[in-house]
## 1
Amino acid sequence: MHRNSSPLGFLPTRLLLAASSALWAACGTAPTAPAPVALPTTELTELAVNVVTADLSRPDPDAAFWRDVAPGLVSLIAQPVTAPRPEITTTSSIYVQAVHDASTVAFRLQWADTELSEAGHLGEFSDAVAMEFPMVGDKLPSVMMGAKDDPVHIFHWRAQYQRDAERGKPEIKDLYPNASVDMYPMDFKDAPSGGKDDKEAFNPGIAIGNPQSYSKTGVDEIIAEGFSTSSVEEGHGAAGRGVWKDGMWSVVITRPMVIDGGSTLAVGRPNSLSFAVWQGGKDEVASRKCIHMAWLPLKVL
Amino acid sequence: MPNVENWHLKRDVAYPYEGHRPARQWAIVFDLNKCIACQTCTLACKTTWTSGKGQEYMFWNNVETKPWGGFPLAWDLRILEKLGRQDWAANGEYLGKTLIEAAPPTERVLHFAPKDEDWMYPNIGEDDCGGGTLDSGAHLDSLPHDKWFFYLPRTCAHCTYPACLAACPRKAIYKRPEDGIVLIDQSRCKGYGECVRACPYKKSMYNPWTRTSEKCIGCYPAVEQGIQPQCVVNCIGKIRVMGFISPPAVARADNPVDFLVHEKQLALPYYPQLGLEPNIYYIPPIHADPQYLEQMFGPRVHEAVARYKELHKDPEAAGLLCLIGGTERIIHRFTVKAGIAVGYDEKDEEILRVPVTETPFERAAFDEKLGAVRNNNP
Ligand code: SF4
Ligand code: SF4
Ligand code: SF4
């Protein structure tokens, strides 16, 4: 949809846009595009979280209040510590904004990515972003996924998960329209003894209840105590929504201020967070990512 | 990084984890002179294990024609090209680098990452000949001639030093200490596909429906009951035998796999130079290009070919070949005495007995009892 890669495709898209805005104008309900917020060029040293009187229950990257919050630049580099890792820094900065309404905190994260990648096919990976918080708060764990007995709480949004939530988890026929499959034998396990377990026997990830194998809502909550230890936890109501436009991702992740058994933010208390970005189109996944190398202080006002 | 002992290469190799050889090691030996590419093995595995959604394209067992075939596309050429020229010493020691030793600092394993189109042609190159070109019809009137191809059946090699395991950032892949079978824990896998990238043999495959990676499980539920894998017991050509291979120092000459690999040095690992100590072993085809065979099986291949040609003079080897394909059960020990080959199971109980030379039966052309002329039907 947003692929203007071919010069031939450009003109009709423009015409279509012109036509549709004319239509909106005729109806008298022309949508107001959010005014572009100037992107900063100097590094953020502390992220201020201001109170807003707005509905934060649904994450919305286009909400009007974002225009009143100055974004801060947070620099990223190719994860340098553990192999496999990217050879070059694909995402060098992420622009961060945050607001709260006393019970929910919303973060808007923006970064440049020339192509939209939602994964699906073999050998494809998804665009993604993650925010990481210390579990305890006073003593900061290693920014690299925490450490043993010093866990971190991660909120991981993936374009692929959003696709699941909005358009359904893709079937094989959605991914490969020309695929020809005679039948899945287990679909015929209708004998009295043939239940759900029989039918799922040939979907091992699903059969064993791996969260990875189920349709996702957008954001995974993960607890980690160092590299290789992350495990997806029961969520605490975090939500996410991203929009990719003009080579830029804009993703809002909302999380409760207070999370029992997780990371908790509080007004006036020192808080911290950090970030990671994956460009699926550059085959980034897992430790192949760009990260912020330090904890960024966070101040809830 | 620790050094581990790799007897295929006659030297220690670098590996991210310490070496712990399993109590015994799952292995299959294939006689490539006998494979007919009937793909019965492929279908036996397919119908047993991969009939689910997301597994449509998977062939944990596949059979490809060499030199032109490959599933996924040109998997062998692409990894060999990445590794570049490497050499063996005259004594059989490998002088080159393994995939782990050749990895750049940003990677754990030197690899190529297959894309989905690479998995779309499981039968590409089937029955295509190697060895020179022809302008018009051929007259192959002398042996050896330069036109050749052979069939290469492949499963996961349940490597002693698996690249898939080394590459998994979640430690979701493990090698069973009891039989060396390499498995992906389906509850830990997050579908990062690092194993799919890293396995040079391309035997770890991503399931786009469950979003986890899956691979040949060595038919462990059968193996645990003393039964050989599906792709072995269903082999039409009776070219395969599954058993347990010992490291050379403790090899037993009455263990079928040790006998073929160590005692007779007939069966060789494929692409051992990649450094994983793969545990599928091939009796090389005797009518293929020797240089090609050397690239695939290493410098010992020429002796193996020569020995195979003399095999008819070896009653013990002939006896073992008669046992292969004769039983579903895993043969732990065999004997050949007085023209009779006998196989024994783990408890050393006899499981099959066959004559090395079958007794010929002669029947009169006319059946007096039925008053009918016999034809060749049984
Ligand atoms: S053949 Fe590949 S998938 Fe199988 S154990 Fe070896 S590296 Fe792993
Ligand atoms: S050992 Fe079993 S799982 Fe592996 S290829 Fe053979 S039949 Fe398939
Ligand atoms: S079943 Fe046996 S003979 Fe047939 S293709 Fe497989 S390995 Fe070859």
## 2
Amino acid sequence: MSGMTQTTASRGTTSSANAMHLSDEALIAQIARGDDGALGAFYDRFGRVVYSLALRVVRDTQLAEEATQEAFLAVWRTAGDYRASRGSARTWLLTIAHRRAVDRVRFEQRRVVGNEPFDEGTEREMREFAASAEDEAWVVFERERLVRALRQIPDGERELIELAYFDGYTQSELADRLGLPVGTVKRRTFTGLARLRTLLEAER
Amino acid sequence: MNPLSDHLHDEDLIAYALGESDASRSRAIDAHLETCETCRREYVGLLDTLGTMAFAAPGRVPPPDLRSAILEAASKEPLAVAASDPDPATARRRRRTWGSLSGWAPRIAIAGGLAVVLIVAILALPQDSSSTRSVPLVGVHGAVVVTNHRAVLDAASFRPLAAGRTYEVWVIHAGGARPAGLFAHGAGNVPVSGAVGPGDVIAVTAEPAGGSPQPTTTPIAHAQVE
Ligand SMILES: [Zn+2]
């Protein structure tokens, strides 16, 4: 991973070079043992994804940094709680990161509706992101796979998923906002996600 | 919802996956997921799909110093309970206790505040006396063994600290905290210097190399002498 910052490899910690060969789950196991090299490696792998998610949710670079830091510190503190039976390490991280960001945006009440870029520089950073080292190819792949799948689900379902996920609306807030029974909102969100899941699996 | 018969409804799964179930509902759902493979597979698939949504966010580059800020903050964290804790539920509970302590502890006058926190623990614990006692540590897997006013700390499960940091032992009583020795990761049994008496609390913090005259961080582990 050429984008990786150098880690000072001290005794008993995972060096960047070693971390490249470890699975996400193996890194979490190392983090649970207090290996800060593994935490650094986990950040190198997912820091951009977490930060990008946080920024999309909180729409403020300072808050996004805080949410990202909180997410990785939560990983540091609770890595021993990770259970493989409840999903992959990546899903575990992204769930934590998403909750932290949503908590932030609810707390700060800075929620802004819409998908438009919120400041200048997005395009430049997107280019930087896309043009970064080969270790980010998997991110590009995931994004393309997701975008193709999202295009194939009904607008109403996709909008609900996006409002819940990126704008932090609760299901009952969405029901109020859209004038629908909350049960309908939940079912529609669930159906959309089930559809999305099938499409993503077909693309794998 | 009967955890043994009915499967979870879609509405339960989506609310739980989005973190919107209330506490009692969450416990019931969690208990069902623990025992039901069918619902667990459904839930994991849902969570995985939601997680994939993260990739729909426009790709952005975090500031370059965020990585070191995170590692720096991690090195100052009270460390998690050792993964070897036999009861994961206990481990999680303890961890949460320390998590909440670490939130407000820096805002109080350290020595006095610490004594207040630990006096609460003292009042809550039953008293017992016999010549040799082993008291489990709270915060890290391990124990304090006390014989005739002398204590030894079983420190085998303490994790490595960042460079330039050391573990420091404290004996805390109503009058304040007294330094009682330094140790490093992998130390095994650590003698607690000086006498300890009933009601004293043995606590461990991470300090700058060389130790501190008074605790400067939240205790990672503690045990009360009976
Ligand atoms: Zn079930």
